[in-house]
Amino acid sequence: MVETFLFWTFAILGIAGAVALVFNPSPVYAALGLILNLFSIAALYLSLQAEFLAVIQIMVYAGAIMVLFLFVIMLLNLQAEQMETRFDLRRGLAFIIGLAFLGEMFYIFRGFATPGQSSFPAEFSFGRVERIGQEMMTHFLFPFEMISVVLLAALIGAVVVARKHTYQD
Amino acid sequence: MDFLQPNVASYLMVSAAMFALGVIGVMIRRNGIVVFMCLELMLNAVNLALVTFSRMHDNATGSMLVFFVMCVAAAEAVVGLSIVLALFRNKLDIDINKVNIFQW
User: Fold this and answer.
1) Using one digit for the tens of pLDDT, what is the confidence trace for A95-104?
2) For chain B, first and last CA: distance in Å?
């Protein structure tokens, strides 16, 4: 009962945040909408018993990435975007593609529906840190090491791209 | 109230709705930073579907993939934002419809 109520609350909040991100002309409000969406997804992870991922979601996305986005938005001092109100072909096509995708996914996912029962196993054994860490250090050791190389490459790349280029020779 | 109880399909449909909103946002917005945020939204929607399948089959692979997707998303955000900064420094605008310096 409580579970049902919480699921629908956070599902609706998450979709509301996504709508605010897509349709709000001001970049700062769009970023705040995305933060609402990310917190709602973290809550949905908790309701799926994936505690580790919920905490990581809040720390990495809401804590680090969104601060970076807001920092850049405020650094550039962006004005609100002029949203087109009249119909044009490009926007119409975007809506048609998005809604066609949505309809297709709903048609496929309907097959997973089991009305009246949850169809999840009672317990999720990979939600907690112990099992996640065990998997990470055994089966997924090579990707785990490689992701550190990716992060290092991103770090160096960001410094090189964002640096002020002065050509003098 | 039985039909309201969340099952696999309800989580997947929430995820699909978020992904479709992200697709629409990438195509209709012109502000470069907002386009990046819509990309993050799509990555998150896919993560939600992956966690749902991982929970459904009680399998670790989906959860691990979500962890790696988060790392790559962080790297992508950092590089993308530094490109936006470099673009702003050169053109004083980040409207992606006006970025056509590679066009001939």
Assistant:
1) 999 999 999 9
2) 61
Q: What is the CA radius of gyration of chain B?
A: 18
Residues of A in contact with B70 (CB under 8 A): 56-57, 60-61
Hey, what's the torsion of the CAs at A105, A106, A111, A114, to 10 degrees?
130
pLDDT digits (tens, 9 = 90+) for B67-101: 999 999 999 999 999 988 888 888 787 788 778 77
Does B79 sit within 8 Å of A154, measured CB to CB? yes
Chain pair A-B, CB pairs under 8 angstroms: 243
Are A161 and B41 in contact (CB < 8 Å)?
no
CA separation for the pair B13, B32 (Å, rounded): 28
Q: How far is CA A102 from CA B15, B18, B19, B43, in A?
A: 10, 9, 8, 16
Q: How far apart are CA A8 and CA B5, in angstroms?
A: 9
User: Could you give the ipTM of this predicted complex?
Assistant: 0.90
**Residue B69 in tokens:** 């997707």
pTM > 0.80: yes
Question: What does the block give as tokens for A70?
Answer: 């807001």
